[in-house]
């Protein structure tokens, strides 16, 4: 039995069972277990990095599930951490292969830039996403026809086949909102996004009706920042905060740009964006009012 197990750490089976399917989730699980083992031995990230011929920042990235794993590195860390049990080593090293297996979204690599593949992996592993949108309905809440209008706007030269592949990808991502362990989504949307008739009036009516139905889900919260609220805290534009079920993992801030994205996880950055999101939630209409506002918009269309 390893020292971590002897000192009351969760058994390996519980760690493996935590995340949802997908390589990002498995990397998070494996990284969290490696962190627990290191801390149980009283070792610093610098000491662990030296053992695998790397830096303390490499250990931090591994423990946060932000990078892939090399079997040799994990084997050396397990030895350093005193994990001698053959079955435990085999189970953890087996996770390395699974965590390095491409996720389902890699089949869309022809229409999916590398920087957004990272986001989808995090989205699949997240337990809660808080998002603010100013121009569009959030992707996880879009109807197929509305999504098609958004994709055509962003990719005017794309072929019909490419557009449909992008739509299929977006619809598949929405599976995270359904099933036995759905993602919790808290979306704050600027009123302008709901007033802009992308795809035409009928498409927009269907989109608003869809939002009404989504507000009936217990794990989906939708708020609208009305024009009457005036200026607000998120002057910098849309962003998302992703939270994970593993309590030792920090939130990740996602900022999408035209041809790239930023991922922030430093405590100061995360705290700042949390404060902005909290302020937006106060400035926006109460979640209980959202359905009525959407139905009013439908009546006026």
From TrEMBL:
Residue span(s) of domain HTH cro/C1-type: 34-89
PROSITE patterns, per database record: HTH_CROC1
One Gene Ontology molecular-function label: DNA binding
InterPro entries cross-referenced by the UniProt entry: Cro/C1-type_HTH (IPR001387), DUF5753 (IPR043917), Lambda_DNA-bd_dom_sf (IPR010982)
SUPFAM superfamilies found in the cross-reference section: lambda repressor-like DNA-binding domains
Pfam families reported for this sequence: DUF5753 (PF19054), HTH_31 (PF13560)
Name of protein: Helix-turn-helix domain-containing protein
Organism of provenance: Thermomonospora echinospora
Highest classification ranks of the organism: Bacteria, Bacillati, Actinomycetota, Actinomycetes, Streptosporangiales
